[in-house]
UniProtKB/TrEMBL annotation:
This is S-acyl fatty acid synthase thioesterase, medium chain. It comes from Scomber scombrus (Atlantic mackerel). SUPFAM superfamilies: alpha/beta-Hydrolases (SSF53474). InterPro entries: AB_hydrolase_fold, TEII, Thioesterase. It catalyses: (9Z)-octadecenoyl-[ACP] + H2O = (9Z)-octadecenoate + holo-[ACP] + H(+). It comes from the Eukaryota. PANTHER family: S-ACYL FATTY ACID SYNTHASE THIOESTERASE, MEDIUM CHAIN, THIOESTERASE. Its EC number is 3.1.2.14.
Amino acid sequence: MVLQTTKRMEKVINCFKRRPDAVARLICFPWAGGGSIHYARWGNVLSSSIEVFAVKLPGRESRAKEPFFQNMQQIVDEVVGALLPLLKEKPFALFGHSFGAFTSFAVADALKKVHNLEPVHVFLSGASAPYSEMRINAPNRSSLTDDDFLKWMTSIGGTPPELLANPEVLKLFLPALKADLHVVENYKCNKLDSPFLSCPVTCLDGKDDIPHDLQAWKEITTGDFTVRMLDGSHFYLKDSGNEKIILDYVTKHLETAEMDYL
């Protein structure tokens, strides 16, 4: 049973540095079309008190031959199924950027409502709340032609120009990106009647990104709610200076949360 659980977790999670004595875990969800490497690296950088689990979705990296997920429920079922035993062991937090903010929200919702488990902190980046008017009225991108899609990608910044100029790489990259956007665009989430979390929630965003309704995220928690704006556009978190600010912030809050948890 333990072996089966471990194999299931290794399929879904990339963890560069196992830390059995860590006081908390940080579960990170990729942006649309993204892999797990960016976040998995954080495991080498963060203090030994935090173990980083970077979520790997089908259709990319070691799961390249698996079909993409078609809806949010498939992501939630897989992530919760793989991580549930571990999430019961010690405090955990969630971090997600853009598409990852939606998946973080959906996983937190399921963990609370189905399993009565709650993170000690949720970090949401670069996205409007899924039930906000701004999100509901956002144009659909997944059905654009490849040319129009690339124009849009170029306009939001953050994608390396050499990637956009390489047809072979694009052929591999675009299907994953479009599949993830399809999931977001078909994810229906009603306005909340009441907050389902009590933990702190922090929203992060790039000052030069298109505006997002960050304040709407306040509705998910009765706990502290903070917004932090950093220099840069949609992929502001790839900047090394911003990354240091984010990791220092995450570390401070998780180490504090662990004391509260006890």
